[in-house]
Amino acid sequence: xxxxxxxIFIFAFIILQRVIELFVAxxxxxxxxxxxxxxxxxxxxxxxxxxxxxxxxxxxxxxxLFNRGLSPIxxxxxxxxxxxxxxRIWVITSLGRYWNxxxxxxxxxxxxxxxxxxxxxxxxxxxxxxxxxxxxxxxTAYFTAFLFTVLNVxxxxxxxxxxxxxxxxxxxxxxxxxxxxxFFPKFVK
Length: 189
Known about the structure:
membrane, transmembrane helix, Metal_cation-efflux_comp
């Protein structure tokens, strides 16, 4: 029972965070579409949303059903989780009104290459990928961590090329990011 309170706190924090992000994304989507932006990836978007919803369902069920307790390395896991939350904020503030959970591209928009985008092309996907491992691992929900890591890899194999294609076709994306890796930081030029 002693580790159930941290679980409820973290679970509620993440859900609240995601709800706030949905409002921010919708506001940004409306603004971008008023500026002539075009949405891409609508075929897979519903599956991505479903995957993320099922992640939370699986995590909740696994934790409450098996209640294995906190990870033996929970301080490290908590540290990584806090770092991902700080990076998430850095990603969102770096993109400003261009941040979204959908693929929405404004033709001829200036490509933003500041904040974490100086180091990798897709820091938001990097953060989400780490979270999908770290959040369940905090509470030893190993099945959820493994299953949704695999599903996330499959989803990103569809989503990232779709996003990059849209950006290449409508912006100067290729020129701005020719020296950047997709997912892992590149510090040396």
